[in-house]
């Protein structure tokens, strides 16, 4: 489980914790690209643990727009602190084909009796909150290139924590339209800014929706990215 990989960087779960965790999670399920794990207004009955692929939380608006409020990568938990039996404020949609498992309220209660597992969920919630705050700062204070550089660094750092990077490469399936949604820019502005970042030799596109970071220190400096904020 990528969730365990993320957590092991801080403090390993014991074998018994892992056994109990697996016992209380449902089987791995699949969801097509564009499918929904949950919709705004629905009662939250399950937590979703992302095992493969990317998803996003978004807020459905009256005008039909869907502003993205956060990204969910392998190892992430879908709950945004709303708690079971509450109505979802946000929808969760698959950006790519998705693999996930579920945890119901009764199973979560059993899991939270284990101190290390409870800490695991608290860490996940803290990271989700930290990323949300960073997004607010990113959109409200930074230039176009800085916003995009920060997003690229964030996604690389989160992928690296889950063991999903190789020689500076990582999976980045967002379209320019989705990037523009996240960073609050037009698609044209995103395209121009990405090209500027590429011309500076900081990143390059690779096959299979991958990006390679060629100069991490300079990209992180451009985006004012502080990795400690995600820890």
Automatic annotation (TrEMBL):
Pfam families: cNMP_binding, HTH_Crp_2. GO terms for molecular function: DNA binding. GO terms for biological process: regulation of DNA-templated transcription. InterPro entries: cNMP-bd_dom, cNMP-bd_dom_sf, HTH_CRP, RmlC-like_jellyroll, WH-like_DNA-bd_sf, WH_DNA-bd_sf. SUPFAM superfamilies: cAMP-binding domain-like (SSF51206), Winged helix' DNA-binding domain (SSF46785). PROSITE patterns: HTH_CRP_2 (PS51063). It comes from the Bacteria. Residues 142-217 form the HTH crp-type domain. Coiled coil: none annotated. Keywords: DNA-binding, Transcription, Transcription regulation. The keyword Transcription applies. This is Crp/Fnr family transcriptional regulator.
